[in-house]
């Protein structure tokens, strides 16, 4: 009996698929970089003044001590600045004044999503820092996309194709794990996740 062979695409086609994949991953990282920097900077700089001012709701903190004004403002500023430099490099965030709105949505939206994530965690009775997989890694992405969808819908839909969004959803948790591990190795985090 003839053996059935798994058909692999010819080398030229494989090369084209590889180039397209690299392009999509590069686009995803480039477009999300202001939101990534916002999130990472909030964690890096941290702060002391809780946004919820210690207020409780149904026995649990509204947001918890992990969400501070300092983290919020330093995170947003760093993300916005990063986006500004990217925009000066290749104008990828739209024409003026659109790019200002896009960058504000990416940075403030990331922090909004992060805050919404903590709000959900506290309502589930999880203490500050307790892991909630998927929410921990993707809350800031959802916040950034939500705000972009509200304030810059045309830019959002023409730049975030379905493939780019899928790649963001796949690579963000991986990048999150990697940065947390680096933070742990540098002694800035107590747990490597
Ligand atoms: N951070 C901050 N202000 C923010 C967001 C983050 O100061 N608005 C800092 C806090 O020091 C926080 C750290 O970044 O501990 C990591 O952020 P995150 O993982 O979102 O907070 P957690 O401490 O894990 O708290 P939560 O359970 O609410 O997610
Ligand atoms: Mg956390």
Distance between the termini: 51 Å
Q: What overall form do the CA principal axes indicate?
A: globular
Bound molecules: cytidine-5'-triphosphate, magnesium ion
What low-confidence regions span 5 or more consecutive residues with pLDDT below 50? none
Number of extended strands: 2
| Most strands sheet | 2 strands, antiparallel
Bin the strand percentage. under 5%
Helical segment count: 6
Q: Give the SSE string.
A: HEEHHHHH
Largest sheet strand order: 1-2
Find the structural class using helix and strand composition.
Answer: mainly alpha
Rounded Rg? 19 Å
Number of domains: 1
Helix content: 55-70%
The pLDDT mean sits at 94
Could you provide a short overview of the structure?
Helix content is 68%, strand content 2%. It is mostly helical and 193 residues long. Helix 1 packs across helix 3 (98-123), helix 3 packs antiparallel against helix 4 and helix 4 packs across helix 5 (153-159).
